Amino acid sequence: MNDLTATAAPAYGVRESEAAGDELSLRVEELRRDGMTVLPDVFEPLRMRDVAARLDRLLAEQTLACGGVQALERLRDADLVRCPLAYDDAMLPLACHDRVLALVRRVLGEHVVLLMQNAIVNRPRQQQAQSRWHRDLNYQHWTSSRPLALNFLVCVDRFYADGGATWALPGSNLHEAFASTAYVARHEQVIEAEPGSVVVMDAMLFHRSGTNRSADHTRRAVNH
Description:
This protein has helices at 23-34, 45-65, 69-74, 98-108, 181-187, and strands at 36-39, 80-82, 118-122, 150-155, 166-168, 189-190, 198-202, 207-209, 219-223. By secondary structure, the chain is α+β, with helices and mostly antiparallel strands. The strands form 2 sheets. A 6-stranded antiparallel sheet has the order 1-7-4-9-3-2, covered by helices on one side. A 3-stranded antiparallel sheet has the order 6-5-8, with no helix packed on it.
C-alpha cells in the first residue's frame, strides 16, 4: 500500500485537512510542511555517470583558470563548479526536467526564473565549504506563508550519511531564528537518495553538506 492509497488516519475534531489526490500534491504538501521532498528516478544512473565525468573535467578547468586549489581554498570556493551550463550544454537539461518543473510551478506559479546553477563536489575527508548550516536565501530571519524560492539538487552520486549527503532541519523554513544546538543535534535529518534522484527544498530551509567519512566515495550534486 502506498501513501496515496493508505487508510485515513483516525481523527476527531478535524474540520480541515489536506487532500493529496496524486503524487505531485503529496510532494507539494511535504515541501510546505517539512520544507523538503525527494523525487526518485528522475534521471537515469548511466546519465549521472556521464555528468560526473563532465563535472570533474569542468572543475579541473575552472580550478586552473582561478589560480589553483590553494587560491580557491582561501576563498572557500574549492570543489565548486560555477555555472556549469555555461560551459557544457549537457548540463542544461538538468535544470529543466518536466517532472521537476511541474513541482516548481505548482509551488511558485507558472512563471519561474532560474537564478543559478552550480555543482558541489564532496570528497572523502575534505572540508566542504557548504558544510555550515545556511539558508539559500542567506541572512534572512523571517518567514512567509508561501515559499519564495525553491532549490533543487540533482543527485549525481549516491547520497548517504557517511558519504557526505546533505543534512536538513525539517520545518526550519517555518521559523525565523535558527534552532538551538541541542535542538539541531536531536532533529537534524540526513537526506539519503540514489543517483538520478532530485532533492527539492524550500530556499528558507536550513541545511548543510555532510562530512564525507567514506574511503573512496565522491558525492557530487548539481544545485539549482
